[in-house]
């Protein structure tokens, strides 16, 4: 396998796959990318792997694979930015070492991109567990939209990065992913791009999104802390475009979800839960802040069985049955 370009021409799609200890999933994920019918290159970004992931991918004899060694400790966002800076394609796609693409993913998305002129194309995905068992369909939990979707995105991030195909020019216009975030860089990117470009949705589930105990989002405190920081940045930089009231309400919603999940984790967390609830009220004012509690509960109760299965697969589900419904609001 080559670590430098050996492609005869410029590939249309540059697929970026960061990896830090991707075993046992990584080979299958890479093979699914290489099975695509569209011309592509795969930029495999190795970040401190010590479990044989690099050796597993190196055993695949395919000149479309390019290995990039990232500096020690590189987070997922900077790793993707590094790969994008070395990409040859006009279009970028993002693959995860645990997720599986359908063989026609890129072909369908390139066609939709051509038909709509959208800067970003995304799709639905199936949710599977570590053993590949189907848990549900992701967007059944949401009401996704096309075109201008910013207001909907402020309520919840429903654009899964492993389903995304984005114009490289649009990606570079925003400076790529914000490098101060470990978990929420894709969420901030989606919101900021949605202010400047249209999105198109393929309703087919073109990716199997795998839930397992090493998912970054399994650390819910980090996830919520970074989501709050997303809205702090948006209030500083995008308030004129988005409206400060909308942003404060969205920030309050995130804080309520955090408070609910802390509270349902057990009595030891109730002090933290009360603190987050107070922040939620202060974030948007008393009336609006309390009003977002109902929105947080409604969001959690939507498609509750899938959320419970996802939490169980991550190993984060509270075992007391009476608490599960509220836990799902997070």
Summarize the structure.
This protein has 330 residues and is an alpha/beta fold. It has 14 helices and nine strands.
Structural class: alpha/beta
Count the E strands: 9
> Helix amount, in percent?
40-55%
Arithmetic mean of pLDDT: 84
Largest sheet properties? 9 strands, mixed
**The CATH homologous superfamily of the largest domain:** Spore Coat Polysaccharide Biosynthesis Protein SpsA, Chain A
Multimeric state of these chains?
Answer: single chain
H/E element order: EHEHEHEEHEEHEHHEHHHHHHH
Q: Work out the count of structural domains.
A: 2
State the separation between the terminal residues, measured CA to CA.
42 Å
Strand content: 15-25%
CATH architecture of the largest domain: Alpha-Beta Complex
Outline type: globular
**Uncertain parts:** 1-7, 317-330
Topology-level CATH name of the largest domain:
Spore Coat Polysaccharide Biosynthesis Protein SpsA, Chain A
């Amino acid at each position: 396998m080559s670590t430098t370009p050996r492609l005869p021409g410029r590939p249309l799609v540059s697929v970026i796959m960061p990896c830090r200890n991707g075993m046992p999933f990584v080979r299958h994920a890479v093979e699914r990318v290489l099975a695509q019918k569209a011309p592509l290159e795969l930029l495999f970004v190795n970040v401190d792997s010590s479990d044989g992931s690099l050796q597993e991918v190196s055993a695949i004899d395919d000149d479309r694979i390019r290995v990039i060694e990232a500096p020690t400790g590189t987070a997922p966002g900077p790793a993707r930015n590094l790969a994008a800076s070395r990409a040859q394609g006009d279009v970028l796609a993002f693959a995860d070492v645990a997720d599986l693409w359908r063989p026609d993913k890129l072909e369908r998305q390139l066609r939709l991109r051509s038909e709509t002129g959208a800067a970003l194309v995304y799709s639905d995905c199936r949710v599977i567990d570590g053993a590949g068992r189907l848990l549900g369909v992701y967007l059944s939990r949401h009401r996704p939209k096309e075109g201008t979707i910013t207001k909907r995105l402020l309520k919840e991030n429903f654009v899964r990065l492993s389903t995304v195909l984005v114009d490289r020019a649009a990606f570079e216009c925003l400076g790529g992913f914000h490098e101060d975030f470990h978990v929420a860089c894709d969420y901030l990117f989606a919101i900021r791009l949605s202010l400047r470009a249209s999105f198109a949705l393929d309703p087919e589930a073109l990716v199997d999104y795998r839930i397992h105990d090493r998912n970054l989002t399994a650390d819910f405190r980090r996830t919520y802390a970074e989501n709050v920081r997303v809205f702090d940045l948006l209030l500083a930089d995008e308030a004129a475009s988005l409206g400060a009231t909308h942003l404060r309400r969205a920030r309050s919603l995130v804080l309520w979800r955090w408070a609910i999940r802390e509270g349902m984790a057990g009595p030891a967390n109730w002090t933290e839960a009360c603190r987050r609830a107070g922040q939620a009220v202060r974030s948007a004012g008393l009336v609006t802040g309390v009003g977002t509690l109902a929105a947080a509960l409604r969001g959690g109760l939507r498609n509750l069985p899938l959320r419970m299965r996802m939490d169980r697969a991550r190993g984060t589900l509270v075992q007391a049955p009476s608490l599960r419904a509220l836990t799902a609001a997070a």
